[in-house]
Amino acid sequence: MGQYIAPLRDMQFVLHELLQVEEELKAMPKHAETNRELIDQVLEEGGKFTSQILFPLNHSGDREGCHLDKVTHEVTPPKGFKAAYKQYVEAGWPSVSCDPEFGGQGLPLVVNNSFYEMMNSANQAWTMYPGLSHGAYECLHEHGTPEQKALYLPKLVSGEWTGTMCLTESHCGTDLGMLRSKAEPQADGSFKISGGKIFISAGEHDMSENIIHLVLARLPDAPAGTKGISLFVVPKFLPNADGSVGARNPIFCGAIEEKMGIHGNSTCQMNMDEATGWLIGQPNKGLNAMFVMMNAARLGVGMQSLGLTEVAFQNALVYAKDRLQMRSLTGVKAPEKAADPIIVHPDVRRMLLTAKAYAEGGRAFSSYVALQIDKELNHPDEDVRKEAADEVALLTPIIKSFLTDNGWIATSEALQVYGGHGFIAEWGMEQYVRDSRINMIYEGTNTIQSLDLLGRKVLMDNGAKLRKFGAKVQAFVEENGTDEAMAEFITPLADLGDKVTKLTMEIGMKAFQNPDEVGAAAVPYLRVVGHMVYAYFFARMAKIALEKQDGGDKFYQSKLGTARFYFARLLPETAMLIRQARSGSASLMALDADLF
Amino acid sequence: MGQYIAPLRDMQFVLHELLQVEEELKAMPKHAETNRELIDQVLEEGGKFTSQILFPLNHSGDREGCHLDKVTHEVTPPKGFKAAYKQYVEAGWPSVSCDPEFGGQGLPLVVNNSFYEMMNSANQAWTMYPGLSHGAYECLHEHGTPEQKALYLPKLVSGEWTGTMCLTESHCGTDLGMLRSKAEPQADGSFKISGGKIFISAGEHDMSENIIHLVLARLPDAPAGTKGISLFVVPKFLPNADGSVGARNPIFCGAIEEKMGIHGNSTCQMNMDEATGWLIGQPNKGLNAMFVMMNAARLGVGMQSLGLTEVAFQNALVYAKDRLQMRSLTGVKAPEKAADPIIVHPDVRRMLLTAKAYAEGGRAFSSYVALQIDKELNHPDEDVRKEAADEVALLTPIIKSFLTDNGWIATSEALQVYGGHGFIAEWGMEQYVRDSRINMIYEGTNTIQSLDLLGRKVLMDNGAKLRKFGAKVQAFVEENGTDEAMAEFITPLADLGDKVTKLTMEIGMKAFQNPDEVGAAAVPYLRVVGHMVYAYFFARMAKIALEKQDGGDKFYQSKLGTARFYFARLLPETAMLIRQARSGSASLMALDADLF
């Protein structure tokens, strides 16, 4: 059933050596006490919890799935899920990065993010239960009234209650402007909410005492489209003023979806029949309020695929060292054995290194973004906050899309290392592939992410945010431009930076005349920028590794080898992507729909 | 649950307009009578059978899977599979391209191949039961004694009996030289065979009266490695001389694998405990005999993914025309509806056209190869037979690997068109993705195919076979070099042809010094050559479409549009692949295994 060992060494490398988070956090009064020792302790404990408690439930959870009692509408998650959640709550994990005002530990997101990677490596389906909760926490924390905060946040922070996001309806997912669920105002200030929602992750289960649904619906007088959507909090059990749970609210699970993967998570159709809810934020401004949650969720989805990439890599590596098959083309390597371990074969190494490079690149990049969010939220200097916010806005769609596409590639390569055994459930690899597939879809499909990046974050902004990030890349290129040892990284990075600039301008010009040019270029464009970001971080990591490689710690040789592989084998994808992005809309739009 | 409609128009285009098979078959006495009318009739009937009988069992078969009775060792396939097989046999489908001497209809493979595409579109898991049979038929037809042929072939041709290939053991798949199953000679000329096999597709079921296992095992005095492997026929029931079935032979299914996909097919662990078998061909030459079967099977696996690509495309297209979501970026297209159908969006079109282009490219290419096999087997001119055989040898690993990689890409894109619904089982799209994943693995992983192409078929042959195929491409380029309307296709095709030549020479030189250079380059190299082949066929198809597009049949506009998309969006992958293939083995081999 495989293994999962938290990659503590690499996480520490990223946090302490690459990003120097201790230093960065010192500048934020809220996090000034978060030193390296504390961070490492959290990571170590997180590694134990995830590998010992969550990982053993991953495969069994996939095989068993969730069960709905059609009479009571109660959902039972797979065996062990509830007990693991109890341990999770008792250990205080839900509160790690939550506000101390509501019982949180107040640790920075950049630390919690690494823990979240571990949880997803160990068990994505399980992690979605508390993951969704955290989104509800953030949304209420930002937009709730003081009373709502006082009522809900302590319970969400402690983990006694969990949360969900109820957005999608059967006829609308991407296009939320079409949604139909209705909210009727009541005399007491509450609302009666009716309608049907689908694809509600962790929508119903018995792991927590109460489930706090955040629901999008329309007020009676609401304008059509996205400007007429409001956000409501609709608890499964109506809370009493003292925080105890009261009457059952008529928001029921009508069915559980049968899915390709994440079987351990209950993906529910939710029916509301005059369920009681309360408005969050302003009327008709529900999408704005929801965006807080969605941006956090997009980072979270990237972390899901990063987790899967890491665990798939680890297992494929163990298999590749163990499995004996054929001899090396350059001569026998293990004469004492009936055949050589398959890690001697160049193409097996290509598969392994693809997963390894995507794991390490994704870890560096996503930790960087998490740190920027900490700055955005907690840095005392407004300019720093603003700059961090701009970067987070620019990079969030890349996190969501690039990490999840890469997770699909990496888990599939890791499966392939196993040959026929990769296709067999008991080895566990095929589950990683199946689980990873949803990450390219939910929280905004990867196409939507690419339109968000190219259309909204780059072109509507006249490229300002991209130029700011590009200036960081450029500064690194200039700092290291005369270092011969760095040339193998700096030259292609500088070249790609120039190409991104030219490509952006070219598409911008074309889009001015034909908006379909944005839609035609967006997906390859996002991957080009994603590779520029990874190339930048791999170059920075290589610089550290070059400086430290002679110190005896083989970790740095490994890091250098991965960086070199990345530049040799993965970065060349940009040669394809740039051609695709430049090829324009003509070949896509020429045919009438009936000629397809 | 979706739809499947056999793509008769495109099949007819490929067979009659592109390949002109009627003309080609006239040159082969065995097939001289196979005219267009007959071919179209077979295709039409095939379309009805596959869409009406097989397709309705595809999703239910996936959900139900196969069941093993652990006491009797009998396996029950999903509901309806047995009845469909009865109809298949009664309609005479098993015999289409079999030898008339044994009851076959003697039709060319190029016709049967199109039918096989349809079967796989409709139901890959079901199709593997008769598919494996056909492999056993071909192996016995080529290597059996006259008595073996007389006993087994009529039953396999009629479909009363089915067959399997028993190669893999738990410790060896790719590396068959390590296999351990043993065959003890008996006084009566038979053998007692013992051992365990895994991953035996269609290994046990109740659909046919008898199952004829072709089993690889070692004779007592056999040399080690691949030179000590012999092939045996091991029937489930020992046949009586009159063709009736006799005693149960101790070759039993011990377990059914739980797999990622193809759930409707019984993937069995087979245990042999002194099962009675008979040698096929020469002692210790079993792998040679098996290769007949494996080459046919490799073409067959390519057709599996082609079938999945087609059906996934068809369904995604229906959905994209039906699903309303957002407005076109260039203005409202369906003002009478709440939103535009998603086929207005450029990136949805990119996904659809990717699947469409891979389906049409794969259909042209695989039909061409099937016709070459007909020539190899039945052309009266020995030189033509030899040339066809060389082409088949060169192109078979490309069929297997390029079509199955593309099937994975295409089915995943088709799933993505559905958004969240693509992940839900009832829509059927996720099954196509799961089913397609095995095709990149079995019958020799795609890595093994790429080594076969680059190592054995190209370099060991000093590039002769590749040059011969390249000369055809070159001739087409020269014929059309002055046709301005063709320039958009001819220019990139000619350019890629040159690049393939240079790339091959470069790798050849490097491989001379370091054999790992072959393993490092093989996978991207195969895809480069695959794209050259597709570009050649798309250019040829575009030429026909350009000539006929003004005749009023919109099919030709569609074909031209697909060809233009292929050149604009898919062919640019070669820019990446060539860089990867040229990047060499250094970045793969640098790290010690313990530094991964």
TrEMBL record, chains A, B:
InterPro entries: Acyl-CoA_dh-like_C_dom, Acyl-CoA_Oxase/DH_mid-dom, Acyl-CoA_Oxase/DH_mid-dom_sf, AcylCo_DH-like_C, AcylCo_DH/oxidase_C, AcylCoA_DH/ox_N, AcylCoA_DH/ox_N_sf, AcylCoA_DH/oxidase_NM_dom_sf
Gene3D superfamilies per UniProt: Acyl-CoA dehydrogenase/oxidase, N-terminal domain (1.10.540.10), Butyryl-CoA Dehydrogenase, subunit A, domain 2 (2.40.110.10), Butyryl-CoA Dehydrogenase, subunit A, domain 3 (1.20.140.10)
Residue ranges constituting the Acyl-CoA dehydrogenase/oxidase N-terminal domain according to the UniProt record: 82-160
Domain Acyl-CoA dehydrogenase/oxidase C-terminal, chain residue ranges per copy: 284-451
Residue span, Acetyl-CoA dehydrogenase-like C-terminal domain: 471-592
Cofactor requirements of the protein: FAD
Domain Acyl-CoA oxidase/dehydrogenase middle: 165-273
Source organism superkingdom: Bacteria
Keywords: FAD, Flavoprotein, Oxidoreductase
Cross-referenced Pfam families: Acyl-CoA_dh_1 (PF00441), Acyl-CoA_dh_C (PF12806), Acyl-CoA_dh_M (PF02770), Acyl-CoA_dh_N (PF02771)
UniProt similarity note: Belongs to the acyl-CoA dehydrogenase family.
This protein's name: Acyl-CoA dehydrogenase C-terminal domain-containing protein
Organism, as annotated: Actimicrobium antarcticum
